[in-house]
Amino acid sequence: MTEYVLILISAVLVNNFVLVQFLGLCPFMGVSNKVETAMGMSLATTFVLTLSSVLSYLTWAYILVPFHLEYLRTISFILVIAVAVQFTEMFVKKASPVLYRVLGVFLPLITSNCAVLGVALLNVRQDDATFMSSLTYGFGAALGFSLVLVLFAAMRERIAVADVPEAFRGPSIGLITAGLMSLAFMGFSGLIKL
Amino acid sequence: MTPVLIAIAALLGLAAVFGAVLGFASEKFKVEGDPIVDQIDDLLPQTQCGQCGHPGCRPYAEAIAEGEEHNRCPPGGQDTVDSLTDLLGRDAMTVDDDGAEDAEVNKVAYIREDECIGCTKCIQACPVDAIVGAAKLMHTVIVDECTGCDLCVEPCPVDCIDMLEVKPTLQTWGWNRPAGIGQRPDSRIEVVNL
């Protein structure tokens, strides 16, 4: 049990995918103008990341390793992620039109979110990866992504009305803010040694 | 030779299984869409820019089908508005570049003081006593009291009153209230600056 808690904290804070490993920066900069859209994106990403992390672990453990096809991991994980996103979209569209409207355009965008592929690949790099550990890792990564995305969106909504020098308006001040947040998250390094 | 064949077979198998799952899902989770919404959606430019106030083109198409005005799409321009007019059989409209944004902007009255003739008509019209001045003397607006109601513009015989936009500052900015019954566009949660 302690192990999973450690994985979770590690993925959310210490090795945060956006601010420490610099994965998934595109949605981080792209959909952080409003807190509502950031929430929608976080929800969709959390779901897909967890699901695809588990599915790619299963592909790894039951197809790629037994046949000694480890070198095919990138292409097969991309396949798994694309299918997971497509299936999720169809299912949500049928099961909950309201949720579908909230997630809207964000669901298909997740296919190209590199954090999703990053989680799948980093997962199987550990020698002792298990079903539970990849589930926890994927969920933790998604939580970390959601956390910084919502925090960042909340800051950007305020920065948009603040008296920022003309040359730094818009994405420039956004990138500077992201850098400062990243520095702040460096403070967590060394909290856990895995 | 064999490892290559195994690799090809494994990937093909994976792709076949996923294809079957998606094919099954597209049948199983098929949603009978509203045909008029599809037709409207086809006419929209699919830029998903959100300038209409909806999170994407599809939600806006649904809103049009439910009666919203069909001229809120700046990327589509006048052509889109015209073809929507044809499709829906509604009155012709011109494209509205800032319809959705406009409603949320706070305004304040401003009297061009050197043109004011001191007729006191705006003072009588003001419902919140935000205009000071006396007969034959110039008037002015107390900015803090003005609600931006527009009522003083009409009576002015020399048209010297402008409605100026008030940009939110860090002091006046607040979070949007969650959508719900009785929500007005201007209702905002006061921000407490620490």
TrEMBL record, chain A:
A GO CC annotation given for this chain: plasma membrane
| Compartments (UniProt record) | Cell inner membrane; Endomembrane system
Q: Which GO BP terms sit in this record?
A: electron transport chain
What is the name of this protein? Ion-translocating oxidoreductase complex subunit A
**NCBIfam families named in the record:** PRK05151.1, rnfA
Keywords noted in UniProt: Cell inner membrane, Cell membrane, Electron transport, Membrane, Translocase, Transmembrane, Transmembrane helix, Transport
Q: Which Pfam families match?
A: Rnf-Nqr (PF02508)
* Family named by the database record: Belongs to the NqrDE/RnfAE family.
Matching InterPro entries, A to Z?
Ion_transpt_RnfA/RsxA, NqrDE/RnfAE, NqrDE/RnfAE_oxidrdctase
User: Which gene is this protein's source?
Assistant: rnfA
PANTHER family assigned to the protein according to its UniProt record, in alphabetical order: INTEGRAL MEMBRANE PROTEIN OF SOXR-REDUCING COMPLEX, ION-TRANSLOCATING OXIDOREDUCTASE COMPLEX SUBUNIT A
**What species is given as this protein's source?**
Alcanivorax hongdengensis A-11-3
What is the membrane topology listed in the Swiss-Prot or TrEMBL record?
Multi-pass membrane protein
Mark the transmembrane ranges: 6-31, 43-65, 71-92, 99-122, 134-153, 173-192
Superkingdom is: Bacteria
Complex formation? The complex is composed of six subunits: RnfA, RnfB, RnfC, RnfD, RnfE and RnfG.
EC number(s) per entry:
7.-.-.-
Q: What does this protein do?
A: Part of a membrane-bound complex that couples electron transfer with translocation of ions across the membrane.
